[in-house]
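Hello Y.,

Per our agreement to keep a running log of every chain we model this quarter, I'm adding this entry. I've kept the format consistent with earlier entries: sequence first, then predicted structure.
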Amino acid sequence: MGFIQAIRDIGSLEGDEGLDAYLKLPAEKEGKAVRVFLEVKDPEAEMLDVKGVARVDLADLKLEPEMKRKYLYRDRVGANVTWGFTPLFKIGKPKSTLDKNREDWVGPSANWREETHSHFHKLRYRVLDDYEAEGTLSPGSADRIMTDLENWLERILESLQPKQSHIILFGVLRDEQFLYPGEVPAFVSYFRKKLSQSLAGGLARLKACAVCQRPASGLVSLSSVFKFATADKVSFLPGLDKGEKERVFTVCQDCLRKLSAGRERVERTLTYNDVVPGLRLWVIPEAAGPDGVAAVKRAVEQLERVTQNEQLASPGERSERRYFSAMAREGSSLVYHFLFWEKNNAQELVHLMVEDVPPERLAFLERTWERVMKTVMGEPVRKGLNLDWALKSLYATLSRLAGKSDSDKLVFRDFTLKTLGKLLKGETLPIRTFKNMVTSRATRLVYESNNWSDVASTLLYAQVWVEFMTAVNQGGRKNEFRPVRAVS
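Predicted structure for the entry above:
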């Protein structure tokens, strides 16, 4: 419950009302938007009478928080539904040649109506059709849009950027300007209608919310916010029979709004992707006591400042990021929750959750790592002394030992996650298992590597980790934690 309550508290900081809490940016990284300017009779009308496509251009994706309202984006409720909340379609990175891209857009036969995997087919039948069926677009609008897009196809293909991820975004032309979906009343009404339908509670009778404990009707499942929160995911919620799913973790509409806002902020500013490659790490602060909300606000803003400073830093400086160091210096009223998870198409797979980690634990780990690094590496050591470097270095070291073996990399990733979990929770670390992994693969590392300095560095970091695990096991009792003074 601590993790869920902490997400809700972060969502409470947003102060979002109306739709804001349910919106997110359509991408996490920079990319491109193929903007389709619809020519309509009246941009303010409840039903858009589309005359055709006036213009198509390629623009940068804007990732500033205030753009959430303009994009009006929310993830689809499932991968196979024939509608979305937003007149937007993700196409990923284009191919390297014009011909290959043309096949992606209209299919090998160029008959996109029959080529079900083509972009045009999906645009028509998974985006536009439902807008027409719901009365957001006038009858015949989808046909007129697709006919004009066919005429624009070659110009679109010539403008695509192969190394950038792309979306297709429909908006409205007004006074030579592009109106984003959130600036078009008809698209906003469609979003509200679909949101209301998707969030409609399954329980009409009065029942207590699992988060705030207040009685309410129309409660909804937590899976509306977290796709890994379903009845069959024993790694996140209690293992439940499907018949029991309405009895645990149903939430009221107020908590749902705050949880949605909290998740969006965590994904935007408190998510780190480089501790274990391929996995996302959420860092969630929680505070107790009368100053709890203010303490969480300070902690979130401190971590967001670290993120902003990292984005402005040079590549060399970015390698010395200090997210965990910042956490280790926060006040004693805080604890942190860590969630490692993986996005796999429409699924969200939880790999590790560690709750209630105090800053003192992080401070102890950082002090220990710094001392061991200086001992093994020798003075002076100018980089790699912070906890961020320590946590990243475990999988980095093991993956080099795995060489070209994908199976070994999976084993090492699992071992890394289990070790990081024990490290954060204060449990005994598996030194002997780590030693066996290193010694059994050291010979292969030597033979497969063309650079002796890489071999030497890998084995040296393996030695650092043996010494670090030993030191943590010997000194990791809670009464040996020494708090670090909070930074003002």
